[in-house]
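Notes taken during the Thursday session

The instructor put the following on the board and asked us to keep it in front of us for the whole hour. The protein is Cupin fold metalloprotein, WbuC family. We were told not to look anything up and to reason only from what is written here. First, the residues (149 in total):
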Amino acid sequence: MLDALSAEARQSSRLRRNRNLHASTDEAVQRLFNAIEPGSYVQPHCHLAADKAETLLMLRGRLGVILFDDAGRITQVHELSAGGCAGVHLQPGLWHSVVALAPGTLFLEVKAGPYVPLTTAERAPWAPMENTADASSYQAMLSALFAAS
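Then, after some discussion, the predicted structure tokens were revealed:
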């Protein structure tokens, strides 16, 4: 199933795909596999609800996690790998993004449900939206933070 999910991510225009483990988006805990490929742009965002902490656990590949302050300045970067640092816990209200650092990157995401789409206030106003002209160069800048690793 994980191989098929990675193949779907490679074929997706967004270069990522998820597979829910929970039966309904209304469940109290959202558990999902995320497959992401290099070049996929995840707009920096945060989850404002006090119960929306999220945990990312690596299964395959390498993932860069980037944390930002409210003005969009990078405050921390973390490289997660299936054979090394294997996860991160992100508190509510923390601006963050991720970049795939290797083909076939897969992680498990766990956060409180029910599923609620990001609001405008949870999307970083200082970062390009997905599918805009600036998104590709911004994603490349984020990925370059990990070039020496």
